[in-house]
Amino acid sequence: MKLERKKTSLYLLALHLALVFETITCQRPDVIASGQTLSGNHTLSSKDGTFELGFFTPGKSRNYYIGIWYKNFVDKTVVWVANRNHPVTNPYDSELKLFPDGNLALLNESKIRIWSSNSTARKDNATLAILLNNGNLLIRDDQDISDIIWQSFDYPTDTWLPGGKIGYNKRKKEKIYLTSWRNAEDPAPSVFSLEVETNETSLVLVYNKTKQYFTTGSWTGRYFVSVPEIQSNPYVLNFGYISDVNESKFTYDLIPKTLTRFMIDVTGQFRQFAWRENYPEHRWGGNWLRPEQCEVPRFCGAFSTCNQLKAPSCNCLQGYEPKLAESWALGDYTDGCTRISPLHCSDVGEVEDTFFFSEGNAIFNPGYRGFTFFRQSGKTSKMRVWIVIGAVGVLFVLLGIVTLVILQLMKRKVGRYNGEAGDLILFKYKDIKKATKEFSEKLGEGGFGSVFKGTLPDSRGIAVKVLKNLRQGEKQFRAEVSTIGQIQHINLVRLKGFCIEDDKRLLVLEYMKNGSLEHHLFRENSNVSLDWKASRVLTTIRGTRGYLAPEWISGEAITAKADVFSYGKLLFEIISGRRNMELLDDGDYFPALVADKISKGEEVLMQFLDQKLKGKANSIELTRACKVACWCIQDDEKNRPTMGLVIQILEGISEVGIPPFPWFLRGFAKDNEYQSIVHEPYTFYTTSSNN
């Protein structure tokens, strides 16, 4: 009798514990237990309150979707959508349910399964769905946290969160990639995607699953060749590539007290947004963007033009209107335009509009695009087609003849060049290969290209810069030829010429026997003191990590003021003897520390000076150099000085006012007062110096 009572007591205790556990599980705000459902305005919330899961409706749409979003932001930022192609109209009659077999499914108003995770557990009634603090939705064993059955990070939509991944699942033989929303009110997959290039280690943007229109370049193990700033930006930690028996993937972690996310926008652009804990309100700031809007193929659709300097970027040709006005209003232009008034050409049969498109590639006439338009109808249209094709063919032949004549004249000019006149030479690629001994001696490498040492037939030394990627490097190539090629100064490296053959872009500069400025600044045990008026060193910095102006990252127009920004960052390195990517021993970022002191009108202490100089510097000159550096790195290029003015100030000919604290440095400032400042436009001014 006692034995039976004991068994009964144990049974009741086990049943009680099971009920308690089930009650605790059901009460957790981040969990859907086996057999439970979620509907209406009920939501899951991650343990730390960062993310929320539930039904949502985008914009003014009347459709509802199951999604995950940032919980506390002013604008609901959705990062994952389950039923992208199958919305519901009534969330109260629909339900998200975790079935006993471990399958998470969405049932619509008619209780028809319209989306599911297609997951199966080893045993029934032993799973739970949980929303983690990183925004990942997991289905796992309710006892073993390592037994993951399914996770949303394996099936991202348009957003790549920290801890998430882009790559390839080797076991399932599936790509893990992003696809943009159709528009702001429709999360259905669009024609733009972000994925890892097959058998490569580069991220690429692809149109309609076939046409690649942007690449980050190969992964070196530390950064992407063409866009090194992704890995080195202040909101990303441990960006890297991992490959094992299960998967190969790119992933990254989150910097403490920050939020960031990469995404492919409805515009077809790869973007990064960021937020810091001490920002004045919960709103995102744009931090990175590629490519430029008008480089996205067919973004504006048929019979339209693209101008990224205007808003909106897309406009219909004269006589045309948006084919779907509602889509255009939501930022989706891919359906293009249609004729406002239909053609009335019944006497010649069926008529359609046709365009021929031609694109120029002349180095000093970039971006040339021309259209030949005609209407074709019946037999007459075929004759007109051949007439137009013949005319275009003749035009190309004439252009070819003119081009050959010009090239021949340039070759003769190269043959007469003696190196003294300052003319630029058009080098042949095979001659550069011979001069550099097949590019065997590498001098250095930057974000846009590598530099090799070479020797001309007359024994003069040269440094050859080889651009790595034509698509991202073309802008850099044109800018350097048009700017450096016009500059002749005793203290500046000279551009001797260039090479442009097929997809090859090379710059030929004079070789500096004194080495690079980087070598003198950062070489250990260096006691070299540089006299700027007596010696020259190689200072090729544009495109290198730590020197990029904000407009290089944001995709805005590039002017000479981008080089002024790079010079300002270089000046900080000259002053401190530290690289821009390094923090001080106490965790401060040197440019932010100097900008803070200068903007407050405080004296710049000698402790800022490079330790190798042992305090041997003029404090007035040091303060002047710090002010110039702060003016050079202003966010708005209009507030940056010209290099001519910079020289006048550094030489003491002119004086300069107090620069404002640069907005992009606010995330590095320890003092919170910069987090809420709204900067007004500043005017850079100087006064005559009496010194």
UniProtKB/TrEMBL annotation:
Transmembrane segments: 385-407
Aminoacyl-tRNA synthetase among keywords: no
Record-level Gene Ontology MF annotations: ATP binding; carbohydrate binding; protein serine/threonine kinase activity
Matches recorded under InterPro entries: Bulb-type_lectin_dom, Bulb-type_lectin_dom_sf, Kinase-like_dom_sf, Prot_kinase_dom, Protein_kinase_ATP_BS, S_locus_glycoprot_dom, Ser-Thr/Tyr_kinase_cat_dom
Domain Protein kinase: 437-691
Enzyme Commission numbers on file: 2.7.11.1
Reactions listed under catalytic activity: L-threonyl-[protein] + ATP = O-phospho-L-threonyl-[protein] + ADP + H(+); L-seryl-[protein] + ATP = O-phospho-L-seryl-[protein] + ADP + H(+)
Record-annotated Bulb-type lectin domain positions: 29-152
Subcellular location: Cell membrane
Binding-site list for ATP: K465
Top-tier EC class: transferase
Single GO cellular component term: plasma membrane
Origin: domain of life: Eukaryota
Keyword terms, alphabetized: ATP-binding, Cell membrane, Disulfide bond, Glycoprotein, Kinase, Lectin, Membrane, Nucleotide-binding, Phosphoprotein, Receptor, Serine/threonine-protein kinase, Signal, Transferase, Transmembrane, Transmembrane helix
Signal peptide: 1-26
GO biological process, one term: recognition of pollen
Stored SUPFAM superfamilies: alpha-D-mannose-specific plant lectins (SSF51110), Protein kinase-like (PK-like) (SSF56112)
Name assigned to this protein: non-specific serine/threonine protein kinase
